[in-house]
Amino acid sequence: MEWLIAPFEVAFVQRALWGGLLVSCVCALAGTWVVVRGMAFLGDAMAHGMLPGVAVAALLGGNLIVGAAISCTAMAFGVSVLSRSKRFAADTAIGLLFVGMLAAGVIIVSRSQSFAVDLTGFLFGDVLAVRTVDLWYLVAAVGLALVVAVVGHRAFVALTFDPRKAHTLGLHPKAAHVALVGLVTLAIVASFHVVGTLLVFGLLIAPPAAAVYWSDRIPVVMVLAALIGGFSTAAGLVVSWHAGTAAGATIAAVAVGSFFVSAVVSALRERFGKVGVAALAAVSVAGCAATEPVIVEEPPHGYVAGAEEMSEAQTRLVVSDPATGDIRVIDLLTEQVTTLAGRENTAAPEGSALVGDGRFGFLSAGGSVRVVDSGGWTVDHADHRHYYSAPVREVGSIAAPGAVVAAYGDPAVSTVVLDSGATLVFDRVALGDGQVREPHRIDGIALPYGEKLVVADGAGRVDVRGRDGAAGEPLPGSCPQPRGQAVTRRGVVFGCADGALIVAQRDGAFVAEKVGYPEPGADRATAFTHRPGSTTLTALAGRTGVWTLDVRKKTWKHTPIADAVAVNTAGEGSAVLVLTRDGVLHGLDPETGSETARVALTGPVEGEPVLQVDPNRAYVNDIRGRTVHEVAYNDNLRIARTFPVDIAPALLVETGL
Fold it and tell me: Per the confidence metrics, is the pTM higher than 0.85?
């Protein structure tokens, strides 16, 4: 039983189950008429007709369900109008609208490169991303569908079997047809978020078609279809959880499988009678019961005490005003802002800094380091990832001799590099439990990698140590005057006076390789920025240009640009983003260095702005305007959202990745 129950111990799977059950009810009410009346082509056309509305809604930052509803309603209206023509059959009108709406949607999507992820979810669904508010939408959809099905039942039956008699009886067959199309529209709009448009017929047609084998009465068929759809949802989620398959597609596959099982059982019943089928079922059940279930007592895979496992990365922005010490944590999914007040004697505009290790933010001010749990983080198991959410809180603080420069974490430790060249090594498990234990100090830059610490000290020596910082294995080569560091999928990187030193683990051994500067006269890189995990790093080259370091190819590239104050990139062919002192964000081609896009975010920039990049968006703080800009860097630097805050967001870091 544990094998069946384990998936539903996770909150987002529970929401997925409820969402699937509600969608099964809506699809049962509408899908029964689709099957009985042979309206499958109409349903398919209307499902694809949602694409323009979804694309426009995503472009404008609106609700995708509302966009889908508007587009699908327009499609239904067009079908109802064109179907009245006597010049061609109804399926011709449906086909024309199908192609026209689909083409319009593809054209809209093709105009923006940033729709790739959203379009995938639209086509194939994302049942594991169902939110609580989506469940309320589905409850309303079930209620409305039930009212339409009950009120229009008599007219729908007459329309299905004898439209002329329906007209004679005063049941208004044309109005009944419109209502029936509206019911199908409602079911499709409600279903696309769960299984997507390409798989919507798994729940809209398969359960009612399977139920038809067991009853000839329409109300009974609807009830059986809802039960079959609910079973398909639960079984699909269990199979998806253990097999690692796409949840929406698995649910649709189980639903289609239920149809074929019903067809086979019905054929056997006709051939052998009910008694023979019952005997076969009894033998199967007895065989299954002969095996004792294995009881698993251990917690489910990925379980973290005190945290809720989620279906997607829980990205957050931690921003702070160094003049007051106030901190705000912005949830990028819900846009909810959590307030953490400043502390006495911690406000220090000079020397204040904020860094993050993916979950925890480390804020230095007034000779101390405050530790903030952003409440969102990712655990990477190489072949899969777990995403977690927990309450935002301030963990505590400790005295520190210097300002923080960078922070990195693995499951055991968090290392915080100071501007003095030393590193504080925190117990990350204790931080997760709400305790700031006294960190041990390492003289040098220490980065967690391969369950070890790779350390470059002030004398230029590089060695590999245990997580406790004890002396370890020295590496050949040196890193004179180390400044700047990064952790990537292909190793750790130290910025040296003569280039970059890359330390990687190959066949269980650590190796070091120097990548020298191609232009000795240019200013060296002193601080690296990059998308977490990316192997492409960027850095300022003074105020006259920027550096790009490809860790995979072991190459540097210098791109001249005047008055650069911040730089970053998503890597792997993405544009190099450069913010200049005039407040303009530039997108540069990574190969040629030519400008591909630009957008004015602010006026003249104050202080040292922050430019953070994740797999989808970039974030830039506007200190004077008290806002944070979200930029779609793959969509011509379109400003996707702007987050106003009640403090001057001079310090910013993104977590949850």
Answer: no
